[in-house]
């Protein structure tokens, strides 16, 4: 998500993986993208990948901040509402030339009557997760944070002046 709250979908992985393969994929994604958080269904963590993931993170010295996703007793259609609203607002961006995009779009367009809906379900969880997480800082907020850091490094505050007013 960027500072304007637009989601940029860079990749979609659509594969059937066992627990060990899921862990390897998560570690790989962590190394490539360095995300703040990775959302994983809570039951998936406890039942299938938890022990493998802890072992892998320790042995590879690569740690993932997992965000447990809960369906909150919502059916798939109800879970999709957040991401649908973001799509209607045109705040989700895709590179439509990538090889995974057409399959992804087809599955989304055919939901809920399609045979396959795993990608839609994962996409819905993304919307729910983003509703609960912090937004990316704006450029103004980043500049203000940098200014405050520089102020602390300088001796300005040591001169008996107020950090806010400068007097």
Q: Termini distance?
A: 39 Å
The shape, in one word, is globular
The strand count comes to 4
Low-confidence stretches: none
**In what range is the share of β-strand residues?**
5-15%
Strand order, sheet with most strands: 1-4
What is the CA-based Rg, rounded? 21 Å
Q: N-to-C SSE series?
A: EHEHEHHEHHH
SS-based structural class? mainly alpha
- Describe the largest sheet: 2 strands, parallel
Total domain modules: 2
Count of DSSP helices?
A: 7
> What percentage of residues falls in helices of 4 or more residues?
40-55%
Mean pLDDT: 86
Task: Explain this structure.
The chain has 167 residues and is mainly alpha-helical. It contains seven helices and four strands. It is globular. The mean pLDDT is 86.
Protein topology:
Blueprint: E1 7-9, H1 19-33, E2 38-41, H2 42-60, E3 66-69, H3 76-79, H4 81-88, E4 92-94, H5 101-110, H6 118-132, H7 139-153
Features:
2 domains, two-stranded parallel ribbon, two-stranded parallel sheet, 4 strands, 51% helix
